[in-house]
């Protein structure tokens, strides 16, 4: 599976962005997928996850502002980000191929990663 993110950019606080992650293969719909973010010098932070059945979970820091979704027909994962804050500035990555047995927020549980897309939120 190859993953490719897009949609990052620079916005002012309070603005919105929608990130996309295109997956290359059809097992997309059978896999959990997630969004992580990383700032320099820190570990990857789990932002949102969507299960095979469409159930979702979010980091407390983004609940009520971010929405994860996927379009199985297009093999594409999305992250709608609203009410953005400067602290949301980070490189955002999509992840797939989750290995059960631990928290979805643990980067090591995911074996497929995209190259990342940069989000910058100015105050």
What does this structure look like?
With 123 residues, the protein is an all-beta fold. The chain contains no helices and 11 strands. The strands form 2 sheets. Strands 2, 4, 5, 6, 9, 10 and 11 form a 7-stranded mixed sheet that branches. Strands 1-3-8-7 form a 4-stranded antiparallel sheet, with no helix packed on it. The model has no long low-confidence stretch (mean pLDDT 93).
Provide a short characterization of the protein structure.
0% of the residues lie in helices and 50% in strands. The chain is mostly beta strands and 123 residues long.
The Rg value, from CA coordinates, equals: 13 Å
SSE class: mainly beta
Major beta sheet, specifics?
7 strands, mixed
Summarize the helix and strand pattern as letters.
EEEEEEEEEEE
How far apart the termini lie comes to 37 Å
Helical amount: under 10%
User: For this entry, what is the oligomeric state of its chains?
Assistant: single chain
Furnish the topology, listing elements before pairings.
Blueprint: E1 3-6, E2 9-12, E3 17-23, E4 33-38, E5 45-50, E6 56-58, E7 66-71, E8 76-81, E9 90-98, E10 110-113, E11 117-122
Parallel strand pairs: 2-11
Antiparallel strand pairs: 1-3, 3-8, 4-5, 4-9, 5-6, 7-8, 9-10, 9-11
């Amino acid at each position: 599976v190859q993953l490719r993110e897009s949609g990052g950019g620079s916005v002012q606080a309070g603005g919105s962005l929608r990130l996309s992650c295109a997956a290359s293969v059809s097992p997309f719909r059978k896999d959990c997928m997630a969004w992580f973010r990383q700032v320099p010098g820190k570990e990857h932070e789990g932002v949102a996850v969507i299960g095979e059945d469409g159930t979702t979970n979010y980091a407390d820091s983004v609940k009520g502002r971010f929405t994860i979704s996927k379009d199985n027909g297009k093999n594409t994962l999305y992250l709608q980000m609203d009410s953005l804050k400067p602290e949301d500035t980070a490189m955002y990555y999509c992840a797939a191929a989750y290995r059960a047995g631990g928290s979805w927020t643990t980067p090591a549980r995911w074996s497929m990663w995209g190259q990342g897309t940069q989000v910058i939120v100015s105050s």
